[in-house]
Design brief:
The protein has 192 residues and is of the alpha/beta class. It has five helices and seven strands. It has a single domain, classed as Rossmann fold (3-Layer(aba) Sandwich).
């Protein structure tokens, strides 16, 4: 748990999808496009070390001194467009991404998952344009797009493409997948 001297405050509730699979996560977590840090805060509160990446880290000013937090300020889209992987080079442990899509970054996200660790990804999908932002197809996943992004490298634990009422009406696509050790099928039930 968080030491009281670190004072982690939650401003927004973590995603129910992240909460559902968080018990699988051990060790280091990479929070990609972390925003105000709702998942950074959540995993810190569970005792994980977290690397939080975003172009604006001002929403994390109140916890920047936390000993288990590493902040990386970077514009992921500009760096990726230059052909570079803007994420840490080595696999970092587990990776969490919510409410963010930049397609050129997807292969780098998948390759950042270490053996025995998980990818938890949730963002908006085609159909969301009826309910509000984002409406631009560049920021909406196509059906099965997350499956296609991970299927050659990760084992899919769970996948959904659905309409959700929470936190607001939207169409979401989400996946939880694991990079197995020695390419063996993990002993988990497939739920999709």
């Amino acid at each position: 748990m968080i030491k009281s001297s670190e004072n982690i405050k939650f401003h927004d509730k973590p995603s129910s999808w992240v909460i559902r699979f968080a018990p699988l996560i051990t060790g280091e977590v990479l929070d990609v496009a972390c925003g105000k840090g709702r998942h950074t805060r959540f995993f810190l509160s569970k005792g994980n070390s977290v690397t939080a990446v975003d172009k604006d880290l001002s929403g994390l000013n109140d916890i920047e001194s936390c000993s288990r937090l590493k902040l990386i300020k970077i514009d992921l889209e500009k760096k990726t467009n230059k052909g570079k992987n803007p994420l840490p080079i080595r696999p970092v442990g587990s990776v969490v991404v919510t409410n963010y899509l930049w397609r050129p970054l997807l292969p780098h996200i998948v390759s950042s998952v270490a053996k025995g660790h998980f990818l938890i990804y949730e963002t908006f999908a085609t159909g969301n344009e009826v309910f509000g932002k984002p409406k631009n197809p560049d920021y909406l996943l196509n059906p099965r797009e997350l499956i296609e992004a991970v299927q050659d490298e990760l084992f899919i634990v769970a996948y959904e493409n659905l309409f959700s009422q929470e936190p607001r009406p939207s169409v979401l696509q989400r996946i939880c997948a694991v990079r197995t050790r020695n390419n063996l099928k993990p002993e988990v039930q497939l739920i999709y």
